[in-house]
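2 proteins. here.
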Amino acid sequence: MSRSGRTPASVAALLMAVAVALAGCGFGESDEGAKSVSGAPVRKPTSQQSDMVAAVSSSRSDEGGLVAMHFVLAKRPKVGEPVDIEVSLTPSIALERLFVRFQAVEGLQIVSGGQTEQIENAASGVAIGHKVTVLPKADGIFYITAVVVADSAKDSVSRTFSIPLIAGEGLSAAPAAPPSASVSEPARESTAQ
């Protein structure tokens, strides 16, 4: 018998009872996750967060934010070939609603996944996945803008992210710099007399 008067068997039974009770009350994984307005459960990201890159936010870095966005490309983008972009949205606090709309610049077309469904009850720290398929129409450096609208119990916030994409060969070689006056020889004014 231990000092507290409990036997190892009673301690094990107590721990088992606590584990069962916690499992029964929904501690840990839950069937009650975020849902889209249509009632369908939201998609989990197919890629691990460690394989993804943070999208560039237009807000100041010290503001934090209600949602973090990461992404990964399925393959190197080639002109004329659709490419999938796996996006992960991770709320930093519990959200009542979450919605994202994606927009592409000229030279890049969004083929599918241009917006998420409106997601309700997104839990803090639980990643939500979305797939955007784009079609590069020319070589170049492009970006996709993602406008995230997040509603919490206290705030309604809109935040803009950019997802950069280099298609094909990227940019062609930079043009040669125009000739300039030599720094060591100052320009002389001609004096006509």
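next one coming up
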Amino acid sequence: MEYQNPKIKKAQNSIIIIDDYIKDTVLLKDIEDDPNFFPKSMGENPRQLLSGNIYHNDNASVFSPWMFWDGWWRSPCDTVKKRLVKAIWEDNLPCDLDEIVGFEYWTRTYNPGQYLPTHLDEDTFVYEKNGEFRCPMIGAVYYAHFQVDENVYPGVLEIHPGRVDVDTVKQYLLSTTQEDPHTMTHLKKYYKPTGKRDIITYRPNRVIFFDAGRILHGTTPSGENSQRFIVGINVWHKDDPPSGHEEKLFFVE
């Protein structure tokens, strides 16, 4: 949906990068000390996101689910991950709290050679169910504060400038039998050549705010001996909520 709130529109048309973001040393230490904060790995396949819900099944070889929280103003901020969500979004939401239905969030550990293909963030549950495309209002990517050896290459985030016409994508999906939304040939017209993409380096304690559901993005492979520890957080508006919340499909801490 298109939002009329000018603050939301401004946020959706911006890419904001903030370094050394989390100042709360207690939170940073708690992230370090939590053995379950990040998964040990995302498996052996170099290409991630082979399907939208591949890590959401607790019987899968890798369990790193899509999580959901309705926000600190509605329920306790009682886990380390929720505290990070609050720290990232409390001062950066582009609308009033009562407009937000909640936060979808996940953690990932990418090992050498692994990468995310070019994609849009979406409601993976509704797509899997009936091929419908639904996307969050705004998103953020946070890179963990763990130090990176200057001699390794952890890969970069590539953002394709320009926003995708969501209505066109929705119509396309309704008319195709293609199974993988992350490789939709219809989106290739929005791809930019390598030299025209915005390149964002993986840097510890860096946060990136952007319209993850309407701006194509992906990563290059992690280099030898490198790891990326990533938290993704999408904000969903009450007027366009994710089906996983409505149908209680998200994992809730």
